[in-house]
């Protein structure tokens, strides 16, 4: 029987991951395009999808702020919260330009980490 372990080449795991990842995600993307083209932008279904997507992004951001991993874990929670609040404020003041919010948040995070090492 041929299985995952049957192939003894270095590239097989990478090919397997690429194919499995493509199959798992691309089908849903194409279905989303096909179904989404038929929906009105004001439809209840599309409003619900946008709300769920926004909630998922907010959840990921909250997890990164409150329960970070890696180097961000060494930064105090207060600095992370200040960076997010200032970045969001800068985003709104700059006319909803994402890069401004990201730049302000990153500058405050880097500055906060720098001040902690002094």
UniProtKB/TrEMBL annotation:
The keyword Transmembrane helix applies. The keyword Membrane applies. InterPro entries: Brnchd-chn_aa_trnsp_AzlD. The chain crosses the membrane at residues 12-31, 43-65, 77-93, 98-116. Keywords: Membrane, Transmembrane, Transmembrane helix. This is Branched-chain amino acid transport protein (AzlD). It comes from Hoeflea phototrophica (strain DSM 17068 / NCIMB 14078 / DFL-43).
């Amino acid at each position: 029987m041929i299985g995952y372990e049957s192939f003894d080449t270095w590239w097989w795991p990478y090919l397997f991951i690429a194919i499995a990842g493509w199959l798992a995600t691309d089908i849903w993307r194409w279905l989303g395009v096909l179904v989404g083209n038929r929906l009105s932008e004001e439809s209840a279904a599309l409003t619900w999808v946008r709300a769920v997507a926004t909630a998922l992004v907010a959840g990921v951001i909250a997890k990164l702020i409150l329960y970070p991993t890696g180097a961000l874990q060494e930064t105090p929670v207060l600095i992370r919260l200040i960076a997010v609040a200032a970045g969001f404020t800068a985003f709104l003041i700059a006319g909803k330009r994402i890069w401004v919010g990201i730049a302000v948040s990153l500058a405050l995070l880097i500055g906060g980490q720098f001040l902690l090492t002094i």
